[in-house]
Amino acid sequence: QLQLVESGGGLVQPGGSLRLSCAASGSTLEHYAIGWFRQAPGKEREAVSVISSSDDITYHADSVKGRFTISRDSAAKTVNLQMSGLKPEDSAVYYCAADPTGWGTGEFDYWGQGTQVTVSS
Predict the structure, then answer these.
(1) Confidence class for position 114, pLDDT limits 50, 70, 90
(2) Per mean pLDDT, which of 71-75, 95-99, 105-109 is the most reliable?
(3) Which of 42, 48, 59, 102 is a plausible cystine mate for 36, CB 3.0–4.6 Å?
(4) Distance CA 40, CA 59 (A)
(5) Which helix (H) or strand (E) holds 26?
């Protein structure tokens, strides 16, 4: 059973930056597509960014394009979400999830516990 652990959340001022990391406990992520999702209070969970297992396909939601970047750090065995130009509407619990098909098109079978991101002055 793949277990995912997120880190890097916190409180940041508008316009600031954060980097979220997703790691696998007891395993590696290299064969999985990894997605970052977020859910704000009273809102549905939404996909933010996805990277395929081969790293050649990435997706970013329109709301974060140009501000967020997803990448895989093979040495650290993590998938990171670099967030810049943060806005209050980016505040949410951020989850990473793993898709064993490697494509990242929706079969995210494994989920982390989430990390809170709060953007506020």
Answers:
(1) very high
(2) 95-99
(3) 48
(4) 20
(5) none
115 Cβ neighbours under 8 A, 6+ residues apart: 6, 7, 8, 9, 20, 93, 94, 95
Task: Please state, in angstroms and rounded to a whole number, the distance separating the CA atoms of residues 8 and 30.
Answer: 20
90: amino acid identity, one letter: D
| H/E stretch holding 14 | none
> Tell me: the pLDDT tens digits for 36-68?
999 999 999 999 999 999 988 899 999 999 999
How far is 119 from 16, CA to CA, in rounded Å? 8
* Longest distance between any two alpha carbons in the chain, whole Å: 41
Please give the Cα distance from 63 to 8 (Å, whole number).
Answer: 21
